[in-house]
TrEMBL record:
Name this protein carries in UniProt: Fibrobacter succinogenes major paralogous domain-containing protein
Organism: Mariniphaga anaerophila
Organism lineage: Bacteria, Pseudomonadati, Bacteroidota, Bacteroidia, Marinilabiliales
Domain Fibrobacter succinogenes major paralogous residues, every copy: 64-244
Superkingdom per UniProt: Bacteria
InterPro entries referenced in this protein's UniProt entry, alphabetically: Fib_succ_major
Amino acid sequence: MISFGILLASITLASAQNDTMYVMKNGVVINKQSVAPADIDSIIFFAPQVTALTDADGNVYGTVTIGTQVWMSENLKTTKFNDGADIPLVTGNSEWGSLTTPAYCWYNNDEETYKNLYGGYYTWYAVNTGKLCPEGWHVPTKDEWTTLINYLGGASVAGGKLKSTGTEYWNSPNTDATNESGFSGLPGSQRPNIFSSLGTNGRWWSSSEYTSISSHAYVLYHDEAVIRRNSSNRRYGLNVRCIKD
């Protein structure tokens, strides 16, 4: 008799063989064994240990392991640094356009509608404090973004694997979006001073500097499978993902 437990986690393994049991660690096959259906008595799926990630506001986040890295699977939405200090909330367009200090906002200054969907929009000056992410986590460097992209097959295809699927949030055609990474990237766009339109792109800070006034950011697009690295002015409001130390 063949019986099954409850599947609480799944992966996709390219070039997997039929009637083969795989043992994996951190997304890499470390052992495999041929099995015949007649040999199977029962299959039990064990749930992986999940540790809740909580920020200084008490917001709880999902996480996802991608290769050797552990990422938030949603955007940061804290209003406090990890030492409990408040991050300044800036709403005015003219004020935002001249910022040289840590700040955050919600899309269209509408917390109720957009906080849980897109998270906060933070200046790079908030990133650079080193206190934006929960303890034990940090804003990824350029090199850590590169590690993620390389694991997913390179910049030309990684974008599709990082985007959430469908066109509920992304504008059509949301090219090659599979979200097979579990990153669930959304098109939150950015805030230079006025808010840019939602739907066409999603942008996330790195902690790495580029010039004296700009830093590296990473962009997903609705009409491409690529992920691009660009430079964004440090006063711009972008979304943030944290990565485990």
